[in-house]
Design brief:
Number of strands: 18
Distance between the termini: 74 Å
Shape: globular
Radius of gyration: 27 Å
Bound molecules: protoporphyrin IX containing FE
Length: about 575
Amino acid sequence: MASVEALWSHVKAGLDEKQASVAVAAMITFLVLVFTTRAITGSPATVDASGKHKIPPSPSYWIPFIGHALSMASAGFLPSLRDRFSEGIFTLKMAGKMHHFIYKPSLAAALFNLHRPAAEEQMLANRLLTSTFGVSKKDAAIYNSIFPEALALYKHLSSEPGLSEVTNAAVSQVKQTINSFVTFSPNPMDQTEWERMADVDVIEESGPDGPITQVDLMELTRNYVATTAIPGIYGTDFVENFPELWKWMWIYNEAFVLMATGVPAWVPWPRLQRGKLARRRLLGYLYEFNEAMEQHMDGQETDPKWQNLENVSELVRSRIALFRKHGVSLAGRASFDLALLWASVANSNPLIPWMLYELYRDPVLLEQVREEIAPYVRAVQPKNEFGDAVWVPPVLEDADIDGLITKCPLLKASYIETLRVYSCGWAMKLMYSDTVLEGKGKGGESYLLKKGSYVHVPQELHQSDPAYFPNPTEWQAERHIRETVDDSGNKVLTAELGTMRPYGGGLKMCKGRQFALREMLLYTAAIITFYDMQPPKGGPWPVPRTRKLVANKHPKKPLKVWIKRRKLPAEGEAR
Ligand code: HEM
């Protein structure tokens, strides 16, 4: 108080009497406005004019028009409102618009299951296509007119035979490369691209337990997964021809939200400027790829660096065919491919290092998972006929993905818990007409969402809700395990997503979710089979501080680990 008075006398000293009275009047007007706003805004849940539907509750705010917008910067703001409003929905006012936030699973399900025209569902996403992926207005209009057809092509990713083709391509890549996930070579010429990006440092070349390497786990894993999983979608040439692809992708990802919120290009924000440069590079690569695909599909000769285009997936081929048929420009195709490529790596790849981190820091669970997956990830050490001086790489003979999904509940529960703790997807919809959300179940209320209001489902609000997940900040895979009894009376353990919806829902639901499940189980299972990890120099595992990056959490500082090879059963040896 004393400092406010001191400040005020300082201000007064610099003003003449007339100026001072204007300043006093302005300040009083402002305070009256702010306190009146605070007094008249905010309300508990009320009912609409018909008396049938509820209007969601809303907290009060201080500043007219701006409303709650400033409070959104605080990480604890939305969780505090979740704990205050038990209805599962509340409304905030920001920049003059109503924004409803939903965190009760039944209301989120009701929102996702609304039968709205496809064009309405796509309308907001169209803005992203332009602001973030750089689609021109002309190509966006064409896409709008062919949206249902474009959407239908995702069957080549989400159902058979496409799903198996993409998954088998990843399995085949993992078989070929798992031994060079870490090469343990101090010579950069012999290291892989994903190692060089992970600040690799060989600690010991030939200790009693074999070589040890220090790496940044996030960088190593997300780049390894991108380099070996994406050939199944974009073919091998695309990934091999652009070794800097992933470097630019992660720089672009850092600026994704700034681009999505439409921060103008001229704002000198270094992260935004770097993101725009990265987008130019990525679009350049994808343009070149599309040019080569154009020639390939027309039966023309391509540059020798594009000799393996026949292994591009049916999903990508059929999209190009559709875009060609409807006159989407090559630049437009590059932008739509950027959207698909980004969706394919940005969400799942950073979750795999988190799953590894959580498993390695729980040695008991790690051993249980290793035991559970052993029949489905068959890895052996071939006979060494050259003596100890020569290292013979172990072999990943087979990875049975169906077995991992259906017979390994602890692994699957670890995947679900990793999604719960580390993913923070956010679905957003605009109401083009007054809409009633019918909450299902006992005591399910219906809510009226007015035309022109926005509806958000920040998945994290539910995923961190202690009412559903006790001690929500703790990673506990076992919480997702359920025991059931099968037809023969045997106990069966299963793990399901339950009330969680990390992939969204309805028409816009993630089209890569089936592949993401397979990818996360495959890579985690292969890596924990072939490698051991520990914190650098031993000791307890650090608990990294995190920041949100688009739809995932990322470590604020590099997540360094020491990695060494695991001893695998010798060929022909009983397990
Ligand atoms: C765990 C990993 C993943 C998560 C949590 C995730 C989540 C999501 C979410 C929340 C959406 C938006 C839904 C909406 O707008 O309501 C989405 C869209 C999409 N995802 Fe994923 N995703 C993951 C992995 C993948 C992968 C690996 C692929 C491709 C291989 C993929 C392809 C897509 C596509 C193409 C869309 C856009 C669909 C459209 O435009 O309608 N996703 N994803």
